[in-house]
User: Fold this.
Amino acid sequence: MTKGTTSKPTEAERLAADVPAYLQMGSSGDAKFAFSDNEKPADTGENSEEETTPPIPSSASYRPGRTSPPPSPQLPAPTPSAFISTLGTSKGKSPMKSSAQTLGMSDLDLEKLVLISEVFRQSVGSTENERFSVANPDKFDGTKPEKLDTFEAQCRSVYLSNERKYAEPSRQALFAGSYLEGTAFEWWKGELKKSSTDFKASAPLFWDNLRSRFGNPEYGRVVEERLTFLQMKETDHVNRHLTTFENLAAQTSWNEEALRSRLYWSIASRLREELGRCDPASFATLPWLKTRLLQIDHRYWERQDEIRREKGRQGHSDKPAGSKKATSTSTSTSTTTSSSPSPSGPPKTQNKPANSQSSSPPRSNTDASGRITAEERKRRMDNRLCLYCGKEGHGVKNCPVSEAKSKKKAAGNSSKN
Assistant:
């Protein structure tokens, strides 16, 4: 900062002023100031309040005794990120120390240079593509043509992860060829024996040649047949069906109208029914139809989850209600049996209600054939009740209801005779 300036420099301005000469390039690419061997900056005779940069060692051509430093070297104008990437490329146990020796700098000066350069790079941004790693492709031996599409997709993913490295078709072919084995690698060895010129000329046709040699010659016809007979099951999710449909459609030359019609008739009937309730304009094109199908299918499976939860809550609430009903039935039965008269009472007045009650037992205590259920049988046995009429004080053999029913049946048979 010069004299007369009242504002203090910001951190970014201070770091920018501290960047070495070979990073502060003008529009013409020349350095704004030169290297210097002096341990201290030259005395200009003027007092300056601005912050000075630590001395940068000069080239080895300058020797003590000279009255003036050598002319500044004309260095290229590398980008900050490219310069930083070269600092750690030296081989050895200490790349930083090796780089410092190469530049004729001390380790501390180089560390400061790297720090300042990184701040400068982040401030101006990087023009290089950010690299990231993707999974390597699986080996392809040529025995299964249906795996060729997957192999090609995996290789192209690697190409896209580093477009600068695999910009040339010859590099793409070399990378894909390194993952061939078996019969496919034998074919690749023949390609590698070509001259450099012939190989670079055939590299752009690598995938076409590989598909013609190890792919299915009727591949297009097979894809069209699979697309024609593709059908979604009622229990499938439409997103899976759309993925299969799109993969097959991308390998055909069908237009959008044909693909839209094929998609409509390939989906489940439940989806077509819901489409019939929608406005036809909402799925007039193929992309709109896919969007509408995803919305309908998503809501359908949400509703299925709601139904399952409702059934679960109903089943949980029915169990206590059933036990309560059984308890009330047992209580009413016990009350009836306790208030009933003894068998020694008048047979006509006492047996008639008993007979009417036993002739129509509760529906919950009998099965479809009219017999008592296993639970009711166990209850009567535990309470020492009659297994026929459900009353206490007697058994099946001397049950008055059973005897009255037998006498009535016998009288009916005698009258017919």
